[in-house]
Amino acid sequence: MERQFQLELESLKTSLIKMGSLVEDSFRLAVAAFLEHDRRAGLEVIISDERIDSLELEIDNAIIDLLALRQPVAKDLRFIIGSQKLNNDLERIGDHCVNLAQSALTLLDSPGNSTTGGLAATAVEDIRRMAEIVERMLRDALDSFIRLDPELAEEVLENEQPVDDLNRKTVKLVVESLKAEELGVETGMELARLSRNLERIADLSTNIAEEVVFLTQARVIKHQGV
Amino acid sequence: MERQFQLELESLKTSLIKMGSLVEDSFRLAVAAFLEHDRRAGLEVIISDERIDSLELEIDNAIIDLLALRQPVAKDLRFIIGSQKLNNDLERIGDHCVNLAQSALTLLDSPGNSTTGGLAATAVEDIRRMAEIVERMLRDALDSFIRLDPELAEEVLENEQPVDDLNRKTVKLVVESLKAEELGVETGMELARLSRNLERIADLSTNIAEEVVFLTQARVIKHQGV
Amino acid sequence: MNQTPPVSMNFMREDRKDPAPPSLTGNTGGMSGAGNGNVTGFTTQGLRRRFRWDEFLAEKLITVVAFISLAAIVMIFVFVFREALPIFFQPEKEETAVVESAEEETYGEEYLGEAHRARSEEDREASRAETAGSEGRATLSNLAGTRWQPVSAVPQYGILPLVVGSLKVTLLSILIASPVAILAALFTASFAPRWAKEVLKPAIEILAGFPSVVIGFFALVVLASLLQNLFGYEYRLNAFVGGLAMALAVIPIIYTVAEDALTAVPRYMSEASLALGASKWQTALFVTLPAATPGVFAAVLLGFGRAFGETMIVLMATGNAAMLSLNFLEPVRTMSATIGAEMAEVVFGDTHYTVLFLLGAILFLFTFLLNAAAEVFIRQRLLKRFRGL
Amino acid sequence: MTTTKTENTKIAIRDLNLHYGSKQALSNISMDIAPKNVTALIGPSGCGKSTFLRTLNRMNELIDNVRIDGSVRIDNVEIYDKQVDVVELRKRIGMIFQKSNPFPKSIFDNVAYGPRINGIHDRKRLEEIVETTLKRAAIWDEVKNDLGKSALALSGGQQQRLCIARALAVDPEILLMDEPASALDPIATAKIEELIYELKQSYTIVIVTHNMQQAARVSDFTAFFYMGELIEMDSTKTMFTAPTKKQTEDYITGRFG
Amino acid sequence: MTTTKTENTKIAIRDLNLHYGSKQALSNISMDIAPKNVTALIGPSGCGKSTFLRTLNRMNELIDNVRIDGSVRIDNVEIYDKQVDVVELRKRIGMIFQKSNPFPKSIFDNVAYGPRINGIHDRKRLEEIVETTLKRAAIWDEVKNDLGKSALALSGGQQQRLCIARALAVDPEILLMDEPASALDPIATAKIEELIYELKQSYTIVIVTHNMQQAARVSDFTAFFYMGELIEMDSTKTMFTAPTKKQTEDYITGRFG
Amino acid sequence: MKRLRRKVLGSAVVGLSGAAAFSIVAVVIVVMATIVVGGKDTISWEFLSTPPREGMTAGGILPAIVGMALRVLIMSIAGVPVGVITAVYLSEYAGAQSRLARAIRFAVNTLAGVPAIVFGLFGLGFFVQFVGSGMDTLLSDGTDLHWAQPNLLWASLTMALLTLPVVIVSVEEAIKTVPQDLRAASLALGATKWQTIWHVVLPNSLTGILTGGILAVSRGAGEVAPILFTGAAYFLPRLPGSLSDQFMELGYHVYIMATQSTNVDATIGIQYATTLVLLTITFMLNFSAIFLRSRVRSRQMR
Ligand SMILES: Nc1ncnc2c1ncn2[C@@H]1O[C@H](COP(=O)(O)OP(=O)(O)OP(=O)(O)O)[C@@H](O)[C@H]1O
Ligand SMILES: Nc1ncnc2c1ncn2[C@@H]1O[C@H](COP(=O)(O)OP(=O)(O)OP(=O)(O)O)[C@@H](O)[C@H]1O
Ligand SMILES: [Mg+2]
Ligand SMILES: [Mg+2]
Ligand SMILES: O=P([O-])([O-])[O-]
After folding, report:
1. pLDDT exceeds 60 at position C20
2. Whose CA is nearest to atom 5 of ligand 5?
3. CATH of domain A2-217
4. Pairing with C262, which of C51, E56, F151, F157 sits 20 to 30 Å away (CA)?
5. Cα E39 to middle of ligand 4, angstroms
6. In this predicted model, what pLDDT tens digit does every residue of D36-89 receive, in sequence order?
C-alpha cells in the first residue's frame, strides 16, 4: 500500500498547491483592486472565495480520510497535520483577501474617495510596500511548502517584523490624517483596515512557514518567539 | 488499551475545557476593561494570552501524539480532529480578546476619551449588547462541546446573524459620528475595531458549534450555509 | 486429469451463441492476459454440470477395493471365532482319528531340559494307555482344568497353565522393559546431547528390526546358558529367560511410543518451565513426563499386547512345559507357543483343533482390548492435552 | 456510496443461512458485492467471515454436515443451482488462503497447475501463461531466473504472491482471500496490499482480515460481521469515519467485548 | 526523554554480540532499559528481536552453538558472569511467549508450578499466591470458580493471561514478552495490552512486537532493530512522530524494503 | 542446602535415565556381535547358493533364501496395492461420518495389534481348509488334496493380510501429512477430486507410501509364526516350483535348526550363519525404509 499512500499524499499536496495559488490570486487581485482601482478584480476576489472555501472543505475531508484509513505516523503524520494547518491558514488568508477587496470596493464606492494627496498618499504608498512584502512572504511560504524547504521558510519569518512596523506606522498615519481631516472618515477607516488585514496575512504566512519548519524538521517554532 | 485510550481522550477534553475557560475569562476581562474602564483587567488579558498560547501548543502536541500512537478511527478520530479545530479556534478567540483589551487600553489612554455622549454612547451600548450575545455564544459553544450536545450547538449558530447586524450597525454609527466629529478619531477607530473583533469572536464561536455538530453527528455544516 | 478439450470448446461455442447479459460482456473486456481458453463470465451454460468418466471410475474402484479390504479383515474375526465356536456346542463328539500323531514330529517338546523330557515321555505313555478305550472331551469344566495334555489317551484341555504361563512371561518382560525403555525415552527427549541421540536412535531401530526368531535364537543359544551359569538354577529354559528375551522385543515398542509422546510435548511448554526458573530435570519430571503420561501408559499397554501374543521367542526360550506354577525359574508354556507348536499336527475339526482356535480367540480378544485401551490413551487423552481441544 | 442492486453488482447474496450441524454460523445475510472493487469482511473471531467467504465458491461443501440455504448469484447466475458444476464454478473464482500453500513443486509447475488441469499442455502456451500471471502478481522479477526452483524455497511473502499468481492462471474473475497477509511481516504485507490494490483493476476481490487497518487501507467497501450476522456494510471511508451502527463503531474503535 | 545511563536503568546492555554458529545475529548492541517502563522491540522479521530478548534471561543457552559476548547487567549485576546461577536468574525474569503455553494441568497447578518448584508446598500459601497473581493478571474474575479446570479449556486470550499470571507467581521484576498477542484476535489483544499497561506499575517490561501500532500503544520506549543492529531507540512518542534515523522513519511509515 | 539436594537429585535423574539408554545400546551391540562372530566363518558363496545336505548338518540355505524372497514378493503384490488404495479411500473419499470408513478404521486398528500367530490360525482355517478345499472340490471333485494343504500361496496371502494394516496405517499417515491447504488450493483452482488426488496428494506422499510398503515388507519378512502351519517346510532341498508347493523359509529354518536339529552342537555354525543372513536381509529392508523416512522428514522441515 505504501505506493498507493504516497500517491494519496501527493494528491493532497497538489490540492494544497492549488489552494495556495487560488489564495495568491485572490491576494493579487485584492491588492490590484485597491491600488489600481480595479473594481472587477475586487468582485472576483469575493466570488472566488467560495471556491476557496469549498476546496478547504474538500481538503479537510481528504485529511480525515487519510487519518482514518492510513493511520499515518512520523513524517507522514507531520505532513498531514501540517497540511491541515496550512489549509486552515490559507482559508483564513482567503477571508482576509475578501476583507481587502471589500475595503477596496468601499473606497471605490465612497464619494470622498481621494487617496491622492499628502498623508493619504503616503499611507497608500506604505500599504503598497506592505502589499509587496506580504505578497513575497505568501509566495515564499507557499514555495517553501511545495519544496519542503525549511530555509526558505525561515526567511519568511524574518519579514514579520517589518510588516508589523509598517502596519503600526500606517495606522498611526491614518489616524493623524483623520485628525488633520485630510482624509474622509470612511477612507481612513478602510485604509486602516487594509493595513490591518495585510498585517494579518503576513502573520498567517508566517504561520505557514512555521508549519513547513515543523513538518520538515519536527520542530515547533510557533509561539516560541513570543 | 481501550481504557487507557479513553483516559487520554478524557484528559484531552479536560485540557480543552481548561483552555475554554481561560479564553472565556479573557473575554470577560477584555469586555470589562472596555465597559468598566478596568485597566487591570485589560493588562491581565494581555498577560494571560501567553498561557493560552502555551496551552494551545500543549494540546496540539497531545493531539499529534494521540494520532501517532493511538491511530484513532470513527468517533474517536472525529473527536480528536474536532478538538484540534476547537483548540485552534479558542486560541484565535484569545488573540481577538487581546485585540479587545488593547483597544480598551488605547481608549483608556487616549486623551480625548469620551464615549459618553450622543452617538458614541449608542455605539458603546451596541457593543455592550454585542458583548453579551457573544459571551453567551461562546459559553454555549463551549458547553455544547463539554456535553457533546449538538442541539445547544445549533442554538449558537442562530446568533451569528444578529451579531453581524449589530457589528455593521455599530461600524456605520462610528463612521457617522466621526463624520459628525462627535467622536475622537482614535476613539472611533478603536470602537470600530472592538466591534469587528467581537464579530470575529462570534464567528469563531459559531465555528466551535459547527465542530461540535461534526464530532457528534459526523455532519459537516461549515461553509455549507454560504 | 484428462479434461477433454472438445467439451470446453463446445461450451465456448454455445456461449458465443448465447446472448450474454450486458454485465457479462462488460467484465470480459478487462480480462485477458492469462487467458487459457476458459470461457470467462458466469453463465448458466458455462457452469452447467457435466459428467466426468475418470472421476466416476476412480471413485467406484477405490470404494470397491476398500470394501475388499474390509471384507478380508472381517473374515479374520469370523474365521478365528467360528473355528473356536464348536467347543461350546459339541458335547459328545467322538474322537475318531485319535493320536496317530507321530511322536517324531511333535517337535514342540523335543528340546526340553533333560529331566522334563523324561517326564513328558511318561505322560505320553500314560495317555496312550488310556486312549485305548475312552474319548477325548473338551467340556467347559475340562477347559478350566489345570492340566494341558491334548495328546494323551484322555486328552486334558485345561488352559489355565497356558494362561498363567503367558501372563508370567508377559509380566516379567514388561517389568524389565518398561523402566528401561521409559527412562531411555526420557533421556533422549530431555537430556541427551545430540551425539547421544545419534547413537541411541539407530540402536533402537536395529533392536526393533530384529526378527523375533533372532531374539529367540539368541536367548536359546546364548542367554539361557549364560544365565544358568550365572545363577545356577535348575532349568536352562524357563519363564525368566523367556521374559528377558521378550523384554528385548518389547523395549523398542515402548521406547518408540513413549519417546514420540515425550517429544510431542511442545517445545514451548518446556521453555515455559525453564523460563520460570525450573532446571532441566525438574522440567523433565514435572512438565514433560506428566504431559506425556497418557502416551507413556499407552506405550506400556502396547508393549504388553505385543509380548502377550509373541510366539517365536517363547517357543524357543521358555522350555514349553505346561506346568501350573508361579515360580519364574521353571519352564512355562504360553498360549501362543502352544498354538505354534501343536497346530501343525492336529486334525482339522477335532477337539484339539478347536481348542487351539479357542486359544487364538482369547489372544485375539485380549490384545484387542489392550490396543483399544492404548488407542484411547493416545488419541483421546494425549492429543487433547497438546492441542488443547 | 452504498452498494446498489443494479447491474453494478457482481455477487448478490440474499437471505443466506448456513448451519454446521445444528449450529447456525450465518444468519440471513444479504449483500451486494461490487465488481472490480475490494470488499473487506471484518468482525471478531468466529463471527463467520471465513464461512461466508467459502460459501461464495462452494468450498464449504467439502465439510460434512453443512446446510446452506438462500441465494448467491454471480452475474445473475444462481451458484447453488443443481445444474451448476462446482468444478467449473471454482475455476472462475480464485481463492487465496491464510497460510500460503504452494504445491511442493517448482514455481513454474505451481502456476501451470491450473492450466494443465484444464488440459493445456502446450509448453509454449504454458510459458506464456506463467509469465503473464507472475507479472500480474508482481513477483516475476523476483523469480524469473529460478522458475525451476522449488516454490517452498521462497519467502513467506513471495509464496503468497505465487499463490495469487497460481489463482490468476486459471483466469478467474473473482478473488477470495482469507486473511492473506496475517502470517506475513509488515514488509511482505505491504507488498501484498499493493498487489491487491492493483488487482482490483481487473478482478472483484473479497478479503477477510483481522487487521482493521488493513481493511481500511485496501478496501473500497467494508462489511462488519458479528455472530453470523451482517451488521453493517458501507464504503470503507464511511465505515471508518462515521459508521451508522453502534456495534460497528465500538468494534472499529476497539471498545468491543 | 532518551534513556540515561544513571541509576535509572534496570538493564544495561553493552556491546552485545551473538552468533549462531558462524552467523552473527546481534551486533554490538548497547541499550539501557528503564525500570517500570515498557520497552518495545520492533524491526523486520529475522532482525534479531527474539534473539535479543532471549539473551536477557539466558534462554539462548538452550540452543547449541550459540556464542555470546558483551555485557548484560541487571541492577548492575553482570548476568553472564560465571558466578550467576541461570536458574536463579530466570526466576527473577518472567517470560511470556508468542503462543500461549499453559501446562496441561489445572489452572491452579499452572500458577502454582513456579512456587512449587521453589519449594513452597503449603496449600494455604499457594492458594494465596494463585489468587493474587491471577488478580494481577486480570483473569481472576473469569476463572475463580474453575481453578481446578484444565488450563487448556480456556480461550487463547485467557490462556495468555494465565501464562502471565504463572510468570508473576515466581515474583519476577522483569517481564519479557515475545509477541504475546500476535496469535490473538483484536479483542483479546486489547485485554492483553491493557494488562501490560497496568503491569508496568510494578514490573520492567520488554516486549517484542510485529505490530507497530501495538508498540505505539503500549510502550514508553521503542527500539528499532535491523539486521542484528540497534538502529535507534527513543521514547515511543519521539519514535512515532519524529524519529532521527531515516531507516526508522522508513520502517515505521511502511516505506521499507 | 536445598540447592544441593536439588543438584544431587538432578544428577540422579539424568544418570539413571542415561544408564538405561546406554544399556539398550549395549544389548544391541552384544546381540549383533554374538551373531556376527558366530556366523561369519560359515558364510560363503557356497553356503548361500546350495541347498542343505546331510540332514541339514551341512550344505547351504539357498532354498530358504529363495522361499523367503518368493513369499515376500507375493505378499507385497497381494497386499501393498490394496492397502494403498484403501488408505486413499479412507483419507480422501470417506467422510468423517462414513460408516464404511469407521468400520475399516476400527478393523485396521484392531488387526494391527493382533498377534501374528492368530493370523496363522486364520490362514490355516480360511485359506487352507476353506478356500483350498473349495478349490479342490471345484477342480478335482475333492479327490485330490492339492490346494487344501499348506503352500507358498497361502502362506504369502496370510502374510499379506498381516501386513495390510501396516500398509494402510502408514500410507494413511503419509497421506495425512499432505496439508489440507494443498487440497483446498487444488480444489479452489477448479481441479476435480481425482485430479487433486493424482496430482497433489499422491505425489506428495509418495515417499511415505514407499516407506509404508517397505516397512510392511520388512515386518513380514521377519515374521515366522504365521507360516508355521500355512506353508513352511521343515526340509525340502529343492526350490518351490509352483504356488501350491511348500517351501523352506529363512526364519523358519533358524527356528528348526536351533530346536529340531539332530545334532545341535555340530550345526551351531550353520545356525549362526543362517541367523546372520536373516538379520542382514531384514536390516537392508529396514534401513531403506528409515532412509526414505528421513528424506520425507527433512523435506517436511523445509
Ligand atoms: N467445520 C466446522 N464445523 C463446525 N463449526 C464450524 C466449522 N467451521 C467453523 N465453524 C464455526 O462457525 C463459526 C464461524 O466460523 P468462521 O471460521 O467462519 O469464523 P471467522 O469469522 O472466520 O473466524 P476467524 O476470524 O477466527 O477465522 C465459528 O463459531 C466456528 O466455530
Ligand atoms: N536457533 C537458531 N539457529 C541459527 N540461526 C538462528 C536461530 N534462531 C534464529 N536464528 C537466526 O537469527 C536471526 C534472528 O532471529 P530472531 O528469531 O531473533 O529474529 P526476530 O527478529 O525475532 O524475527 P521474527 O520477527 O520473525 O520473530 C535470524 O536470521 C534467524 O534466522
Ligand atoms: Mg477465518
Ligand atoms: Mg521473533
Ligand atoms: O512371529 P512372532 O514372533 O511375532 O510371533
Report:
1. no
2. C311
3. 1.20.58.220
4. E56
5. 15
6. 999 999 998 889 999 999 999 999 888 888 999 999 999 999 999 888 898 889
**CA-CA distance, F189 to F168, in Å (whole number)?**
29
Find out whether the beta carbon of E45 lies less than 6 Å from any atom of ligand 2: yes
Give pLDDT, residue B175.
Answer: 81
Residues 6 or more apart whose CB falls under 8 angstroms from that of E180 comprise: E96, E97, E98, E160, E164, E192, E196, E207
User: Domains of chain F, with CATH numbers?
Assistant: 40-301 (1.10.3720.10)
pLDDT per position as a tens digit, D172-214: 999 999 999 887 888 888 889 999 999 999 999 999 998 888 9
Question: According to the model, what pLDDT value does residue E161 have?
Answer: 92
Domains and CATH numbers, chain C: 4-84 (no CATH), 90-157 (no CATH), 160-388 (1.10.3720.10)
E186 pLDDT exceeds 90?
no
A142 contact partners, CB below 8 Å, separation of at least 6: A17, A20, A21, A24, A208
* Strand residues in F29-122 grouped as ranges (E): 52-53, 58-59
Q: Tell me the pTM.
A: 0.81
Residues A140 and A12: their CA atoms lie apart, in Å, by 19
Cα–chain center distance at C356? 19
Subunit partners of chain E (3 or more CB pairs within 8 A): A, B, C, D
Output DSSP code: residue C48: B
State whether E210 and D256 contact (CB < 8 Å).
no
pLDDT at B190: 87
Tell me which chain E residues have a C-beta less than 8 angstroms from the C-beta of D190: 254, 256
DSSP-assigned beta bridge partners for residue E68: E18
Q: Is E63 in the pocket of ligand 2 (CB under 6 A)?
A: yes
ipTM, interface predicted TM-score of the complex: 0.78
How does the average pLDDT of chain E come out, rounded? 90
Residue identifier of the C-alpha nearest atom 17 of ligand 2? E50
C-beta separation of D75 from C27 below 8 A: yes
Band (pLDDT 50/70/90 cuts) for residue E185 is: confident
Q: Which residues in chain E are contacts of B69 at CB distance < 8 A?
A: 216-217, 236-237, 240
Check CB contact of E90 with chain C, cutoff 8 Å: yes
Which residues contact ligand 1 via a Cβ below 6 A?
A: D 20, 23, 25, 43, 45-51, 63, 210
Q: Whose CA is nearest to atom 16 of ligand 1?
A: D48
The three three-digit cell numbers of residue B10, written as one number: 478524557
> Which of F259, F265, F278 to mutate against chain C (most C CBs within 10 Å)?
F259
* Ligand 2 center from residue E52 Cα (angstroms): 9
Query: Given an 8 Å threshold on Cβ–Cβ distance, is D213 in contact with A71?
Result: yes
* Residue C310, φ and ψ in degrees, nearest 5: -60, 135
E156 → chain D, closest CA residue: D45
Distances (CA, A) of B223 to A54, B31, B85, B134, C96: 7, 29, 15, 20, 118
Average pLDDT on E70-93 reads 91
Closest CA to C49 of A123, A71, D80, A202: D80
